[in-house]
Structures are given as structure tokens and as C-alpha cells.
Amino acid sequence: MLPRNKVLRFGGDYRIVENVCGHLLMARQNIARALSDKVEMGHISLQEANAWAKAVLLDNPIEAYKLHLN
Length: 70
Description:
The protein is mostly helical. The protein has one domain. Helix content is about 60%, strand content about 0%. The chain has two helices and no strands. Helix 1 (about 20-40) packs antiparallel against helix 2. It is globular, with a radius of gyration of 13 Å. The model has no long low-confidence stretch (mean pLDDT about 90).
């Protein structure tokens, strides 16, 4: 199992930028479904699920790509 800070869950090599919106929607839905299942099974808390979602969709890409957001 990977640590949370090593997981990126969204990205694609699209030639048409419009495809990114659909891929982001699917990625968010799948992440939400997977994390909600883990919460329902008692494997993680709701706070941990929220931290995972924020990490894989925001914090980790910022760190991996050395982005500076204002």
C-alpha cells in the first residue's frame, strides 16, 4: 500500500481539452465512492476520507509538480 502523499488520482493525456472535464468528473465520483465504502466498512474515519480526497486531488499534485498557487 502506498502512503497518501504518493498517490495522484487524476490526469490524462488528452489532445482535446474538453475531455479533461469528463475525466475529472469520473475521477471525483470514483474517489468518492471508494472512500465512502471505506468509511461505511469502518476501515477509515470520515476525517481520514476527507484528508485522502484533498491529498490525491489537490495537495499531492501541487507537491509533485512544484506548483505555486496564490
